[in-house]
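Please produce the structure of this protein holding phosphoenolpyruvate.
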Amino acid sequence: MRKNIVAGNWKMNKNLQEGIALAKELNEALTADKPNCDVVICTPFIHLASVTPIVDAAIIGVGAENCADKVSGAYTGEVSAEMVASTGAQYVILGHSERRSYYGETVEILEEKVKLALANNLTPIFCIGEVLEERQAEKQNEVVAAQLASVFTLSAEDFGKIILAYEPVWAIGTGLTATPEQAQDIHAYIRSLIAEKYGQEVAENCSILYGGSCKPSNAKELFANPDVDGGLIGGAALKVADFKGIIDAFK
Ligand code: PEP
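Below is the modeled complex.
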C-alpha cells in the first residue's frame, strides 16, 4: 500500500546540540499528538548516531541526506551507505538538486548510490525535478523522465522499496510553490512512467512526495491531490511548529 510521508531535510543546518534538541522537541510533540502519516527526519551525517536513539522509531524515521557511491576505502571525506545504516538510520535522500548542481552528481553516480543504499537496507528518497528555464520551456516532463533513469534499472522488487520526491528546483527555498494543479499533473505523469516500466501495481504503491517551499498554509491543498503522497520539507522542517503543521495536513 502507498504510504503518506512527510520527510524533513535539515540540509547543512543545526550543530550537534541544536540538532539533538530539535529531534527531542519533535519527538515530544509527535508522541503527545500522533501523526497520521509516516514522518522522517533527514539530518547531517554527524547527527545520525545521536538522533536515532532519542526518537521513537515507531513514530519518526531517521535518514541521511546523501551517501557515497563507493562501498569503502580511500575516499577521504565520504560516508558510505553501510556507515549510515550502522547508526540506526533507515532512509537516505539521494539526487537532491543541491547535490546534482553543486556536487556534479550525475544519473550514473546516483544509480550507484541508490544500489548501495538498497544493498544496506536503507530506503532511498530519490529526488527529481526541473530548473526554472526547463519549466518555462515546458520541458519538465522530459527532465524528470531522464532523471528517473537512475532508478529505472532496478528490479521491480527493488523499485518497490524506494520513495520518490518531485521537487521543482525553482520552488526549493525560494518561497515559490508549484500550484496543486502543477504538482498533480507532474506526479501523475511520473506515476504513468512507473506504470509503463513496472506495471500498474508497482506504480500505485509508490509514494511520490512533493518538495519546494511547502509550509503549513499550503500543505493541505498540495497533499489533497490523488498523486501527491506527502512532502519533502526543507526550511519548514527546522521549526517543530512548522513541521508539525505540515504533518497535521494529513489529519
Ligand atoms: C528541499 O530542499 O528538499 C526543500 C523542499 O526545501 P524547501 O522546503 O526549503 O523549499
